[in-house]
Amino acid sequence: MGNSKTDRRIIRTKRFIRDALTELMEEKGFEGVTVRDLTQKADINRGTFYLHYQDKYDLLEKSENEVIQEIKEFIKKANPNEIVSANLKEQPLPFIIALFEYIQENARFMQVMLGPKGNPGFHLKIKEVMKINMLEKLELMDNKTPPLVPLEHLMSYVTSAHLGVIQHWLEQGMKQSPREMALTLASMTFLGPAYVAGIKRT
Amino acid sequence: MGNSKTDRRIIRTKRFIRDALTELMEEKGFEGVTVRDLTQKADINRGTFYLHYQDKYDLLEKSENEVIQEIKEFIKKANPNEIVSANLKEQPLPFIIALFEYIQENARFMQVMLGPKGNPGFHLKIKEVMKINMLEKLELMDNKTPPLVPLEHLMSYVTSAHLGVIQHWLEQGMKQSPREMALTLASMTFLGPAYVAGIKRT
DNA sequence: AAAATAATGTACATAGTGTTGATTAGTGAT
DNA sequence: ATCACTAATCAACACTATGTACATTATTTT
Q: Cα(A192)–Cα(A194) distance, rounded to whole angstroms?
């Protein structure tokens, strides 16, 4: 029996479709993409598409979730307790460097999904992953005092800030190295945006 | 001659269409909304829609730009030099309070446009407005040292952070007052997320 | 080589799009 | 209050995309 996960034809077809999705979204955005477009670009029969996905929304979601899953897993991997109690001063977190490296590898997909033609829901999914990760880390830290603002707002602030910088980095063609970016992020988060901007505390 | 800006029928029709857009986007997201839906909900003839908008994308863009324009104007108004040299310590900026108030008044539209069913391009537009405003302010400040990271990244960081918090606030039903929110934002930006989180600087 | 199944090709009913032309109804200016 | 103007309606059009179905062909697995 042709196992549905090993049959080469299936893997091939799915890869064609997903590649087509990325390309077409760059051109017209998700809304503008039709199943016809996808199958033409992927050079497969239109009916074949429906053998694997319910519709284009289904395709989008499955593609997104795959990335989310990968991010989750490699966050877990790169997150032993060492990092937590490590020096958070002005050293970039290795975990963040790894994140940038992963994004760099999947730049084309990430850029279009996070960009103006992408899906806002994808932002939320990623921020959710970041948030959970941060809360866990915060929990494990020992040298801390009570937060000065509601944690929920703080989480929104930091996750959005980080994702926003990532997005901007992608849009500008990833001119900085993952290490530089991680350092920049760490500076802003630990020293604070105003301080980093050069605004003197009075 | 019925001036196209004063004819009641036009104003009425446009209002119906835009209200329908907000409602329908809450239900199905922009992608799911058809011109048919809009005109049915607005209770007008389908042909009438095309008298005012080229297509649904045109409608979206015009609706967005109207909000952007309003934000721009009232930012300008609330931005005399007083604010700049005012104490930026732990006082909420009056300008930010006003922004939250405006958003509160247009909550339904803002929430759906910024939410997971909204348009990512709208985020960019708003962040662009914020960025220009911030750069102007920064320019006018006197007590400052050179920035420690590229200004572009700093701007992405802060604008994304602020917008992210606004989004979260909307999604949670605006439980805090505009003043509280402005204070929270000011704390995080001027003291820094890590400090505010209670992480002691070593 | 045989069995299983992925992919194709074709056709169908359904629904949305954007446009047109004739008609009705509401509006602003006088 | 009237009248010229034009917004809005209605019906019809060709066109494109959707999702489904079924018989057929091609490829893969065992």
A: 6
Residues 6+ apart with CB under 8 A from A9: none
- pLDDT band, residue A143 (cuts 50/70/90): confident
Query: Of A56, A38, A53, which is closest to residue B32 (Cα–Cα)?
Result: A56
A93 has a pLDDT exceeding 70: yes
Q: How many angstroms separate the CA of B35 from the C1' of D9?
A: 16
Distance from CA of A151 to the nearest CA of B (A): 8
Say how far apart CA B158 and CA B188 lie, in whole Å. 10
In tens, the pLDDT along B141-166 reads 887 899 999 999 999 999 999 999 99
Judged against a pLDDT cut of 50, whether residue A154 lies above it is answered with yes
Residue A79 is predicted with a pLDDT of: 64
What amino acid is encoded at A178 in this protein? P
B27: tokens are: 């239900």
Asked if residues B141 and B109 have their Cβ atoms less than 8 Å apart, the reply is no
Terminal alpha carbon distance of chain A: 74
H helix runs in B33-177, sequence order? 35-42, 46-52, 56-77, 81-85, 94-105, 107-114, 120-140, 151-171
- Residue of A31, A144, A159 with shortest CB distance to B199: A144
Band the pLDDT of A3: cuts 50, 70, 90: low
Half-sphere exposure at residue B193, Cβ-oriented, CA atoms within 13 angstroms: 27
Separation between the CA of B67 and the C1’ of D11 (whole angstroms) = 37
The pLDDT tens digits of the residues spanning B107-123 come to 999 999 999 999 999 99
Q: What pLDDT is stored for residue A1 in this prediction?
A: 45
Residue with tokens 């922004």: B99
Contacts of A193 in chain B (CB under 8 A): 154, 157-158, 161, 189, 192
Residue A81 has a pLDDT of: 56
Q: Which residues of chain B have pLDDT under 70?
A: 1-5, 79-90, 201-202
CA B145 remoteness from chain centre: 30
Q: Which nucleotides along chain C are within 7 A of a protein C-beta?
A: 4-11, 15-21, 26-29
The answer to whether some atom of strand D lies closer than 7 Å to the beta carbon of A34 is: yes
